[in-house]
Amino acid sequence: MQTFLKWIEFKLMPPMTKIGMQRHMVAIRNGVISTLSLILIGSFILVFANFPIPAVAAWLAPYTGNLTIPFRITMGLMAIYASFAMGDSLAKSYKLDGVTGGVLSLAAFLTLTVPLNVDATLVKGGGQGIGWVLPMQYLGGAGMFSAILTMIFAVEVYRWFIEHNITIKMPDGVPDAVGRSFGALFPAGFIIIFLWIVRVLLNFDINTFIMNIFKPIADIMGNNIFGAIVPMLFIHLLWAAGVHGMNIIGSIVRPMWLMMLDANMAAMADGKPLTKLPYVAPEQFYQWTVTMGGAGVTLSLVIILFTCKAKYLRDMAKLCILPGVFNINEPLIFGMPLMMNPIFTIPFIVNPIILTITSYGAVKLGLVNGFVANVPWTLPAPVGAYLATGNDWRVVVLVLVNLTIAGLIYYPFVKMYDKQMLDEEAKATMKKSVEAAV
Fold it and tell me: What is the pLDDT of residue 72?
């Protein structure tokens, strides 16, 4: 076990940590997080528009199109918002103007995303043209990959022009906004013209290209049991070594998770049954049925700690139960500790894998709804799971079953650790008694 932990610490952790802290990965993570409020609003609106009570759903049916408009302009345009935010973050990491980086990223994304078959004379109703229309197909989660690539391209071009002093400098006294606009003129011109050549003259569709590459990967991750297990395995290997696994692995796979959730939400909006959605395992699948209480399914562990004889472990349970209910488990991981703890390494890693299998089977077989909403991660697991699946009560049962399974797996290891801590407490008490007698 010690050899295994050393392998994690010295072989696996350094490259993973370097990847997670790489400036482009940080910019992607920051940009996506900045869209969270809009994602939450869009998710709630979509769940409301597809109300779980048949009578209410029938009453809302004539208004569904209008009700889902907030979803269309939040989740449906997520790549636009993220494109600007990611560009802003990456530019700032280079000590460049963040607003300019965001604007150039957004312009690059839209230039390369515009389809070539748009009808500028599209007619509506009695023959009145409604003008030039930009389809929304790749402006949401499905366009996140192209948003990331064009963001990196735009900001790196911007940085190259600034570093080589190929820019227009305005005299002192000119307002900052005007100076920024002229300073970005040359890089903006290069970016737009270059991507126009790629998209229009060369007829290269980046979204089709990316989807052809990543759809098989997303299918493996979202609709294959082994693909669903892999992220949990690496996340918990890192956590066992004291590294925030979700920050590192999540930064790599989150764009695919977002694409899966976007596809599920679009299918729900189109009226597809919630037990037959395109993807089984977006991020919310793990969040609400696998890692309840935080990484390692530690909510089950905290509950068991209340039965321990060692005072330290009971005190840890009292300290960690409230944060654990709201999916915060750093006090347990670093305070107990769980990290670099040979006794708990096996259940900490095995539990999420087992629960991924049980949850995957439940969703795949249609025993519970698929995941269609990104609700706040700090909700208690049963509540979050209920909302994320479009108000499916059956997923609450799945959460409770999974917590029970995790508890059974943790139990013998907790008892082993309890005995060890009890012996240490007894030795400490005896030492104090001897010192007091002397």
Answer: 80
pLDDT attached to residue 397:
95
Find the largest Cα–Cα distance for the chain. Answer: 101
Most confident of 14-28, 208-222, 387-401: 387-401
Unique residue bearing structure tokens 């670093």:
334
The whole-angstrom separation of Cα 383 and Cα 368 is 15
Residue at token pair 């596809």: 263
Bridge partners of 124, per DSSP, are: 128
What's the gap between Cα 356 and its chain centre? 17
Scan for tokens 């990491």, then name that residue.
Answer: 93
pLDDT value for 117? 55
Does 280 score more than 70 pLDDT?
yes
The answer on pLDDT for 18 being more than 70 is no
pLDDT averaged over the chain? 81
Q: In whole angstroms, what is the distance from residue 357 CA to residue 342 CA?
A: 24
CA atoms within 13 A on the CB side of 433: 6
Question: What amino acid is encoded at 229 in this protein?
Answer: I
CB 395 within 8 A of CB 359: no
Contact between residue 282 and residue 260 where contact means Cβ atoms under 8 Å apart: yes
CA 205/CA 112 separation, integer angstroms: 7
Q: Nearest CA to 339 among 294, 289, 380?
A: 294
| Pairwise CA distance, residues 372 & 300, whole Å | 26
Please name the helix (run of DSSP H) or strand (run of DSSP E) that holds residue 240, with its range, or none.
helix 225-240
Q: Please compute the mean of the pLDDT values over residues 331-347 and round it to a whole number.
A: 77
What are the structure tokens assigned to 105, written together?
């990223």
Identity of residue 437: A
Question: Which residue has tokens 């940085």?
Answer: 159
User: What is the per-residue DSSP string for 266-287?
Assistant: HHHHTT--TTS-S-S-SHHHHH
**φ, ψ dihedrals at 378, nearest 5°:** -90, 5
- CA torsion 41-43-45-51 (nearest 10°) is -150
Count other Cβ atoms within 10 Å, centred on residue 175.
Answer: 9
Q: What is the full DSSP assignment across 176-224? A: HHHHHHHHTHHHHHHHHHHHHIIIIIS---HHHHHHHHHHHHHHHHHH-
| pLDDT, tens only, 113-137 | 877 655 555 555 555 555 567 777 7
Asked if 80 contacts 109 with a C-beta cutoff of 8 angstroms, the reply is: yes
